[in-house]
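Record type: monomer structure entry
Structure origin: computed from sequence
Chain ID: A
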Amino acid sequence: LSLALRDLGRPGEADRALAEAFGPLRQADDKPSLARATSYRALAEIERGHFAGIEGTVRELEEVATSSGSTEPLALAEQVAGELAFAQHEFSPARRHLEEAARLIRGTSEADSVVELEVRIAEVVLAAGDPGEAVRLAEAAIAPLRGHGERSILVLGESLLVRIAAASGDLEAARRRLSTLPESAASSPSCRVRIAYLRARAAIFRRSGDSAAARQDFDAAVGVAKMAEWIETGRRLRQEAQER
């Protein structure tokens, strides 16, 4: 519930739902669910730019994995560590941690979680300055999803590929990819989907010389990030909007 509320741009309600979950989970000694709740709280704090204490959370999740014999808390620890490294511009550690998180949950019932991690890895690789490798990773991640409906993670992956194509100057490929996505994504209730689509369309506008339209989409995306209290995402968007 907390994740869904946060993605709908309702961070206050998300925080309350998460806070209310901890007591019952501790009473029930439900370690896997407690680990998930702990990781959700840590990821929200990273997005807000609050890094203090996150490394302690990673150690806490590792200890839960050891005591419970479950790999899920360890995967969550790796994901949190990867997102912290990404937010701190430490791209090599970010990729290493996220790849380990994906490895730990690959083959489980959490197939969408693996794809999300793989798309995130592609984003890290792009930020590190390797668009060719980012394309390879994103294509491999979302290829199995094509033809199976308009899933959010497919929009995230395709939007990343649109941005890379536009940045490389291949506007035809960028527009073709964007045309496969529903225009309704620009007003999706999902903040992640809305930001991804607006960011991709802005990249095309900017490369084609329409700076006013690009600015409008970037500003809209920043506004969505602000509503969701995704400070780090907003920072990246503002930085991207200033690039030439």
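Annotation 1: Residues 11-28 form the longest helix (18 residues).
Annotation 2: The radius of gyration is 18 Å.
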